[in-house]
Write a structure and sequence with these properties.
The radius of gyration is 27 Å and the shape is globular. By secondary structure, it is mainly alpha-helical. Helix content is 71%, strand content 0%. The protein starts with 14 loop residues before the first helix and ends in a 12-residue tail after the last helix.
Length: 211
């Protein structure tokens, strides 16, 4: 009787199939990641394009459903807080500028929502001030420390994302939440920059809020 050698299952033959399966899974995941990236890019570009279209046309942000919101109106007045550090240092030019920003925001978002001139003035003037006010301190040589410049830069980028997100609101409730959040975040960042500029870059940003 011949000795039978036990046969063990060969794992080498199944390896190409496993490798092929892994490569297909990796390819699928890579395709999904590319799809997410392209979707995010298209949405961001679409929001930016929509924001430019609103600036040029003067159309209200919500043509189909345009209601008054007391929450948005009160949040528009928050821009007056940015004028406090300049009032404390007798810089009345910037006090006037932030007063005008707050007024235009109140008119465009709440009181005169269908007025194209008011909408265009708010978007052009307020957007220009929002960008130019911190950027001049970030890039311009001066006493500003590097950590302040870095913090101001990331605040500016974050607020810009919130603004583009607010521009894509569909209904009235979404508009109220997103527009109010845009006002709160931008005022916080702008007040930080204003206080540091007026009272020195080594002081706490909240120490002189109400005196």
């Amino acid at each position: 009787m011949k000795n039978r050698v036990p046969k063990f299952p060969s794992f080498g033959a199944a390896q190409p199939q496993t490798t092929k399966g892994n490569s297909s899974v990796l390819h699928s995941r890579s395709g999904q990641q590319e799809g997410y990236s392209s979707l995010l890019h298209s949405r961001s570009f679409g929001s930016f394009h929509e924001h430019l279209d609103l600036i040029m046309s003067g159309k209200p942000n919500r043509e189909k459903e345009c209601k008054f919101s007391a929450t948005v109106a009160m949040s528009s007045l928050l821009f007056l807080l940015v004028a406090i550090p300049f009032h404390q240092t007798d810089n009345y030019l910037w006090v006037s500028i932030w007063g005008l920003v707050s007024l235009l925001s109140l008119l465009a978002d709440s009181v005169m929502r269908w007025n194209k001139f008011v909408n265009t003035a708010d978007r052009v003037f307020a957007s220009s001030i929002f960008l130019a006010f911190p950027v001049r301190l970030i890039v311009w040589p001066g006493p500003a420390s590097w950590d302040f410049r870095l913090a101001a830069f990331f605040m500016l980028m974050g607020c810009s994302c919130v603004l583009l997100w607010a521009r894509t609101a569909n209904g009235h409730s979404e508009f109220v939440v997103r527009q109010t959040l845009w006002h709160v975040t931008s005022v916080t960042a702008l007040y930080y920059v204003a206080y540091k500029e007026c009272h020195g870059y080594n002081d706490s940003w909240h120490s002189g809020l109400f005196y």
